[in-house]
């Protein structure tokens, strides 16, 4: 059986795994290996997201981790396609006071230059938003924006590879043994050739997996960056994980007469979000009754017509005539308090995790990777304190309070 030896092994090469690997190697870790079933990430959340980036969170730890990440994205903006054109967020009357007060009192948003707008100012600012009777107010956060998540992942990997990180493709880890001392052993399958989408989906949606060639990985430390598969992966080493995979759908549509290209993200009071996407508009909505599970089916026009279009028409007469083009479904990895999980896995020596970013893994991947790499290499958080995001917080009854979730 082929055996791979590595000081640190990261399972999952999405934005989180690639960021963790980049930071580990930048801090001097000599032997870092990242394994993934599909390095292209055909069904990974990192390839299926909306690319929104914001520090506009009401919990200080979420604002901090996003702020640090955004500052980095701005420093490499051309390489990662970062368009710092702001987030415009509209709130219902009943939510406005609580939401605006939470943002104003967040110490980590002091320099965010957030503007607080009355409903009358909404139409003055964006003339196509002409139906505002239900609004209590809106915020505009100019430092937020949109990026290209594929370019960001490529950037992390390139930097990691330059420092010696190895990325191993077509590997699915199915069993992990974490002994009291000595190396951790990962048992995996490796496929000799690239699989087609149906074969990939089989493995990613079913519990049982049989691959072609057995591979064993011996490693000093292990990092679970398996995204929406985090609970499944935790279970294969006997650990618990409280996160769930939940489908999220986005639609691409055409709207003649509204040009959103000068702008960033809009979040409607209904929960529908939308932003310019090439010549079209991308709109998404998190259906509240979506069951847990590995479901990648996009419902198409019926989804758009039931959830996205009506909410948009309630906001703008210009949105009366929209043409559905296409869309897709990906997975959110949802933790019970809807914030990411970053830290050491309690009860498992030298095992760490960074997952469950519930719709914010792109925007927080830089900061999360930095923080976790410090914890792994120095046993402490240096640049930013992510201890509030420890997976142990749920058992300890210390959830991260966050309500600005879409
Ligand atoms: C529709 C949608 C819209 C979103 N919009 C935004 C947004 O606007 N802004 C934002 O910041 N975030 C957004 N997100 C969330 C964001 O995409 C995710 O939080 C982020 O991509 C998670 O990255 P990850 O690396 O943790 O997981 P992934 O990118 O899913 O990577 C996990 C990888 O682990 C691999 N893997 C899993 N188990 C194993 C195993 N046992 N062996 C080998 N490999 C394994 C998988 O193949 C996969 O490639 C959105 C998500 C969706 C679905």
CATH class value of the largest domain: Alpha Beta
Count of DSSP helices?
10
CATH superfamily of the largest domain: FAD/NAD(P)-binding domain
| Major sheet | 8 strands, mixed
Can you walk me through this structure?
- This protein is of the alpha/beta class and 406 residues long.
- The termini are far apart.
- 49% of the residues are buried.
- The chain has two domains: 2-48 and 149-242 and 337-393, 3-Layer(bba) Sandwich (FAD/NAD(P)-binding domain); 82-146 and 245-334, D-Amino Acid Oxidase, Chain A, domain 2, CATH 3.30.9.
- It has helices spanning 15-26, 60-75, 77-80, 93-104, 119-125, 149-162, 197-205, 230-235, 301-313, 361-378; strands at 2-11, 32-35, 52-53, 87-92, 115-117, 135-141, 145-146, 166-168, 171-177, 184-190, 213-224, 244-254, 265-267, 273-277, 280-285, 323-334, 341-344, 351-355.
- A hairpin with a 6-residue loop joins strand 17 and strand 18 (351-355).
- It contains ten helices and 18 strands.
- The longest helix is centred in the C-terminal third of the chain and has 18 residues, at 361-378.
- The protein is globular and about 65 Å long.
- Strands 1, 2, 8, 9, 10, 11, 17 and 18 form an eight-stranded mixed beta sheet that branches.
Could you give the topology of this structure?
Layout: E1 2-11, H1 15-26, E2 32-35, E3 52-53, H2 60-75, H3 77-80, E4 87-92, H4 93-104, E5 115-117, H5 119-125, E6 135-141, E7 145-146, H6 149-162, E8 166-168, E9 171-177, E10 184-190, H7 197-205, E11 213-224, H8 230-235, E12 244-254, E13 265-267, E14 273-277, E15 280-285, H9 301-313, E16 323-334, E17 341-344, E18 351-355, H10 361-378
Parallel strand pairs: 1-2, 1-11, 2-8, 4-13, 11-18
Antiparallel strand pairs: 3-7, 4-6, 5-6, 9-10, 10-11, 12-15, 12-16, 13-14, 14-15, 17-18
Bound molecules: flavin-adenine dinucleotide (FAD).
Flavin-adenine dinucleotide (FAD) is lined by residues 11-17, 35-38, 41, 44-46, 48-52, 171-173, 225-229, 233, 248, 250, 284, 330-332, 355, 357, 359-363.
């Amino acid at each position: 059986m082929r055996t791979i030896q590595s000081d640190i092994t990261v399972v999952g090469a999405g934005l989180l795994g690639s960021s963790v690997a980049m930071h580990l190697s930048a801090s001097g870790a000599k032997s870092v290996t990242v394994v993934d079933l599909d390095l292209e990430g055909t069904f990974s959340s990192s390839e299926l997201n909306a690319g929104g980036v914001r520090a506009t969170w009401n919990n200080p730890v979420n604002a901090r981790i996003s702020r640090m990440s955004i500052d980095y994205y701005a420093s490499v903006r051309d390489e990662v396609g970062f368009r710092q054109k702001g987030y415009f967020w509209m709130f219902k009357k009943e939510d406005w006071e609580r939401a605006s007060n939470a943002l104003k009192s967040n110490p980590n948003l002091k320099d965010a230059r957030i503007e607080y707008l009355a409903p009358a100012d909404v139409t003055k600012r964006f003339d196509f938003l002409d139906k505002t009777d239900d609004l209590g107010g809106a915020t505009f956060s100019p430092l937020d924006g949109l990026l290209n998540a594929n370019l960001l992942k490529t950037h992390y990997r390139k930097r990691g590879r330059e420092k010696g990180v190895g990325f191993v493709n077509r590997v699915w880890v199915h069993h992990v043994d974490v002994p009291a001392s000595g190396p951790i052993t990962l048992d995996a399958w490796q496929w000799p050739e690239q699989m087609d989408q149906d074969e990939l989906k089989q493995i990613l949606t079913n519990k049982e997996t049989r691959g072609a060639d057995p591979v064993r990985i011996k490693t000093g430390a292990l990092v679970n960056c398996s995204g929406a598969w985090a609970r499944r992966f935790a279970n294969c080493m006997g650990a618990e994980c409280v996160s769930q995979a939940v489908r999220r759908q986005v639609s691409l549509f055409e709207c003649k007469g509204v040009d959103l290209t000068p702008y960033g993200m809009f979040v409607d009071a209904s929960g529908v979000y939308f932003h310019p996407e090439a010549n079209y508009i991308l709109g998404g909505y998190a259906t509240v009754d979506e069951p847990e599970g590995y479901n990648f089916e996009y419902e198409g026009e019926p989804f758009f017509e039931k959830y996205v279009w009506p909410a948009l028409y309630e906001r703008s007469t210009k949105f009366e005539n929209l043409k559905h083009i296409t869309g897709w479904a990906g997975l959110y990895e949802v933790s019970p308090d809807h914030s990411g999980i970053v830290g050491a896995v309690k009860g498992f020596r030298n095992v760490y995790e960074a997952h469950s970013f519930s719709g914010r893994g792109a925007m927080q991947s830089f900061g999360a990777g930095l923080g976790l790499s410090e914890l792994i290499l120095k046993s402490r958080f240096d640049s930013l304190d992510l201890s509030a995001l420890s997976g142990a917080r749920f058992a300890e009854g210390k959830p991260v309070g966050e309500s600005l979730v879409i």
